[in-house]
Amino acid sequence: MSSSLSRKYVPLALAALMLIAGGPLTAEAQKKGGILKVGNLGEPPSLDAHWTTASITETLTNHIYEGLYSLDSDNRPIPMLAESHTVSKDGLVYTFKLRQGVKFHNGKEMTSEDVVPSLARWGKQSIYGKALFAQVAEWKALDKYTVEMKLKEKSAIVLISLAVPNNFGAIYPKEIVEKFAPEVKATEYVGTGPFKLAEWKPDQYIRMVRFDDYKSRNEKPNGYGGGKTAYLDEVRFQPVPEVATRVAQVETGELDFADDLNLDAYDRLKANPNLRPLVSKPYYWLVAVLNKKEGLMTNQKLRQAWQAAIDIEPIMKNVAGGRAEFYRMDSSLAMTEIVSWHTKLSGLPWNEHNRAKVQKLLQEAGYKKEPIRFMTTQEYKWMYDFALLTKQQLEDLGFNIDLQVVDWATLVKRRNNPKEYDAFTTGIGAFYDPTHAVFLTASWPGWTTDEDIQKLQAELARETDPKKRVALWEQQTRLFYDKVPVIRYGDLFGLRAIRNTTKGFNEKTERIRFYNVWVEK
Amino acid sequence: MTAYLIRRLLTVVPVLAVVVTVVFLLIHLIPGDPVSVMLGPDATLAQIQATRQALGLDRPLHEQLFKFYARVVRGDLGQSYFLDRPVVTALLERAEPTLVLTFSALLVAIVIGVPSGIVAAAYQGSLWDRTLMLISLLGVCVPGFWLSLNFIYLFAVRLGWLPAAGYASILADPMAALRYMVLPAVSLGFNQSALIARISRSCMLEALQQDYIRTARAKGVSQRSVMWVHAFRNALVPVITVVGITMAILIGGAVVTEIVFNIPGLGRLIISAVLRRDYPVVQGVILVTATAYVLINLVVDVLYVFIDPRIRYG
Amino acid sequence: MADPGARPTWRRHAARNRNIAIGAAILAVVILAALLAGVISTHDPRRLNPAQRLKAPSAANFLGTDEFGRDVYSLVLHGAQVSLLVGATTMILTSLWGIVIGLIAGYYRRVDMALMRVMDGLMAFPAILLAIALMAARGPGIGNVIFALSVVYTPRTAMLIRSTVLSLRELDYVQAARALGRRDLAIAFRHILPNCVGPLLVQASFIFAYAILAEAILGFLGVGVPPYVPSWGNVIASGKNVIREAFWVSLFPGLALTISGLSLNLLGDGLRDVLDPRLRVQ
């Protein structure tokens, strides 16, 4: 097109585009600039996305790294760094075309020579990576922008594994992958995301600044994916371990956003005209993970006894600050919001709180009141809460619980050692595919090695027919409640607070993201 | 005087030696194997051996002690396991907030304590005196951390006058730094201000009864002048000595204050280090604070010499 | 210094001193409350009662309930047991150790130099920091809290005893006893120790107060006794997140701490007035 024509038509075309795209541009004008201060629970154990499932790491790394796929607002995989993919007729060969011209924070262009080693590393260290790569026969680059994955058998989980945000397949530059073996934490952080790491002062802040050469996708923002724009100059994540301080700081404006707040603060946050509380759903379902490798909990009857003993509702109510809107009683292994995998089965031995049954099971288990080492932490208040309440309920029914309160870092370390505990508290967040239920894997702490469960998980990984998968999943759920690898409590919702000057925040995603967010001060 | 000063300086050396020894012994108080505890349960045997050798824990105790001395004198305080950096670096990063907090609290303690004590002494036996002394008694007994919680509730949350928590560097933003420091400094300094008030008062009373004061009065020097010029200067001397002890208490109290107000100083560092079993950092913090205390007392003693004419030639 | 031959007049003064009277009275109440905690509590302080969480003070719960529905009144009473146990044991241990070390240091000049440097070194550590570091090494538990605090406070007592010994050694009757060949230990017990009692009592009351406060601070910081054990520090800590919705949870144990500290400080002040006029704060 000649330049004079373009001078006439391009502005018209742009105007038309704006009208079509509509939406945010007409409602509130995004402002570029500003620093957003976000208060969270504490320090991430690492900023190496491949290395850990910790949710703090997940939140932080999803600002600076990206994977081949991402999740849309229906929790389905959509392309991110991948342009597109094709699957062979027999379903065994996946070919991914990469987007071109995507830059890393160090200026280098992302190509297949970065993608292949990154995901290979992820496949060796990450829970989800390991699950996927167990099925992979060959993984290589075909050319600069094409990579190919050859599977050993048909798989249902390729795209979803590449899309999940937790412990995800972040693409690193090849040099960093080569520098850090999979089991070693990477300590250099270069990604393709809309923000890049500017400074990490442990226990003080993690500063991420806008990456000016970020190449956004053209679509509208969609769930965790789609277009991402870094309006903010900087996002500053500040660890504020004291939840009372975190609440106070968002109330006074020292923080623009505060995560993981205690539910008791809801009323006063609601009353504050400068901010609003957000109830985050889903958040976690509370779980007591049982050590099935060594110790007392290798005994299935004892595990069943615990499951039969707890009266879940009063526990959930107390953990939820006494408020019904902050918890949900549900036996499904996938939470309500994960529509594809939510089950509504009846007759499950969940929340039976049946005294007679407990006595019988304890007897059958041959339990002689040996102390059961139950690890928890006060750093996640709800963990400590449900642990203490559980202890009382169980001890009223004849158990002997040795409650060990440690800090989260110690708990995460100790839970890898089968000699150190019998049970520990944690929460299961959203997972988007049955094969990603960590509590059903053999390598996650607790070590669910039961043959029947593993068989079903393997079938789920292979079976591609969605209807058949749902049936398998329901079967697995029933098996879960019989084998009792972990004790499922109820669903807890979380509380966040956001100041009114912070705009554009997506309240629907499970975890927080600050691209597409701007401030109006 | 010089002889006294030299002697005083020399006493620092053995005290510091003891400090370093105590710090060294700390690791050996840990029940079980300190290295496995430090590295955590998923350390491999090879890692444990390597760390044990690196720390020299496989050598006899006295040899380890000498090595430890050598390292400390060189300025090498080891490596932090959690923070992946040398302990010295971690300490330097956190020193500023603690220093600012401690000195601010000291300032508060003196600014509130000394005038209160003097006024109480000047009007001894009056309602003023009794009220001030009652408040100071309570001030000594009220737990600082509890006071902090109540201050936050009242001034930050209810009244909104001051920020609830946090820290801004004086070098970066002095105005903000001041606002953030008010509540922490006051709640930390309040206890000590009470102590200083009582001591100021008693010293002032004692000074007022001294012969030379009576002589000055007899000579007709005005009341004001008597108080402020003569008595005050002499009353100040014991207050300066108290400063040394006050600093020790303040450094200790700073730990809790930093936790409550989310100030990223040495206090928060040592608590996180304790919770994470990061022993090198724990050792580093107490070594540094003890050394600081010893040096501060040294300075105080030296100042004392210059201020109090009575001991100058003693 | 009082003539050891005459009957001590300080006992009479003590009875008349107001500070001692008030301090001792309040302390007696606190001790009584702690001892009778099991009897006068209205609830089991460890019993969680989720349906009754964060209830304001009422007839059913005199001082309200905490976030688990535990009765604050019962928690404060049982917490007194922990505080007083830690305080008293620390006080006794530091006194004993202080006497031993102080006597040895005061008596044997050669050992004195070394011992005093060690004491100076220990006193260089801010008390709470040293206690925290010791707890880090030893782990949680009430025994370790007592151990940590004893290590921290013994030097002060040792120095005190030592200086008393030093001032007494030179007295005529002591020198006479030595000349007569009386054994050192006998001299210590008959002549020196009785005169240490005064300053020791003063010191002990302050150490009692410091130890109670220190235990609370350690609990508050999460490095003291385990969090579900009723202790004043733990209860204040549990109340700090709900200080607006339920101020009573942190308020009452804080008051208890203040009152205990007050009683011991008054006692200490009063004893100091009576026993050692030189140290008197007018």
Can you tell me about this structure?
The complex is a heterotrimer of chains A (521), B (314) and C (282). With 521 residues, chain A is α+β, with helices and mostly antiparallel strands. Chain A has helices spanning 3-21, 24-27, 55-64, 112-125, 127-133, 158-163, 174-179, 243-252, 266-271, 300-309, 312-319, 355-365, 381-396, 408-414, 451-462, 466-483; strands at residues 35-40, 69-71, 77-79, 82-87, 93-98, 136-143, 146-151, 195-201, 205-210, 234-239, 257-258, 275-290, 327-328, 372-377, 401-406, 423-428, 486-499, 502-503, 518-519. Helix content of chain A is 31%, strand content 22%. In chain A, strands 1, 8, 9, 10, 11, 12, 13, 14, 15, 16 and 17 form an eleven-stranded mixed beta sheet that branches. In chain A, strands 4-5-7-6 form a four-stranded antiparallel beta sheet, with helices on one face. In chain A, strands 2-3 form a two-stranded antiparallel ribbon. In chain A, strand 14 (372-377), helix 13 and strand 15 form a beta-alpha-beta unit. In chain A, helix 4 (112-125) packs across helix 5 (127-133) and helix 15 runs antiparallel to helix 16. The longest helix of chain A has 19 residues, at 3-21. Chain A is globular, with a radius of gyration of 24 Å. Residues 21-27 of chain A have low confidence and may be disordered. Chain B has 314 residues and is mainly α. A two-stranded antiparallel sheet of chain B has the order 1-2. Chain B starts with a helix and ends with a helix. Chain C has one domain (10-44, 58-275): Orthogonal Bundle (MetI-like fold), CATH 1.10.3720. Chain C has 282 residues and is mostly helical. Chain C contains eleven helices and no strands. The interface between B and C is large, with 58 and 45 residues.
